[in-house]
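S., here's the first fold you wanted:
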Amino acid sequence: MSYLKILLLAALASVSVLSIGQYLQTSHTLPPTETAHSKAIEWHKVSDILDLQKKQRKLIIIDVYTDWCKWCTVMDEKTFKDPYLSQYLNERFHLVKFNAEQREPVTFRGQKHSYVPSGRRGYHTLAADLLQGSLSYPSFVVLDQDLNALKVIKGYKDAIAFQEELNTIAP
């Protein structure tokens, strides 16, 4: 095979790989509408859930995080700033942030939850309940409209991977 043919095949392979990469980056997220293009995610508190559901019944995502969690911060700074993902999330879900080490008591589903000192940091019993005792961060609990757990998503996800996981529940 001549040098020119090898060079041409390498160039075509490079273009194909770049095209596939571009497809993977853009094809799995929804295009933002003009009004939602720069709209940030609307985060709420656990105490807001019942009022939110009275106004509009939606699925709920609870972002269970800690202040020291590096990957929680990366998701806030990168994943959740993606305009396609933020539109998708705002349209389909009520979004709640919950610090798994907060010291304030919380009532959820009629049960009072509180902070438990343990080790260096401690934990909140609501986080332990939502994550079924497996406290790892970041974790995202997807609830149905009646506050029943549908899915727990653990670990860092980029915008595409996060939406792909959620598409199985809310396409």
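And the second, which I think is the more interesting of the pair:
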Amino acid sequence: MTTASIASSKYRLTLNNGRHSFFADEPQSAGGTDTAPAPDELLEASLASCTAITLRMYADRKQWLVETIDVSVHLSRENGTSSFVRNIGVQGELTEEQKQRLLEIAKACPVSKTLLGQSTINSSIQ
């Protein structure tokens, strides 16, 4: 579980997952102080990091010679639809077939599945 707590500052908040405290904010253009990633940037970071970790785990399990994995993610919204562009760079001694397999594995990372699946949000206020 992750919690968010915001006081009267515009709009920096503290996030805590029980093991780590970190922050989110809004850019100055949105009235924030731009001292931490914005919520959309954290969402992009979730997909990018999940993808990179999943690919590293898979490559290690297969004992493929992968030196580095770089993932960039960009989120855009248009006409009520959210769209992610994910670019994956893999450095190492891989065949085209192995690269294609990694692309398929990327689609199966848990955050990808969550974003593409049907989710529900059950909210309450106290």
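Why I say that: The longest helix spans residues 39-62. The chain has a mean pLDDT of 97.

Talk tomorrow,
H.
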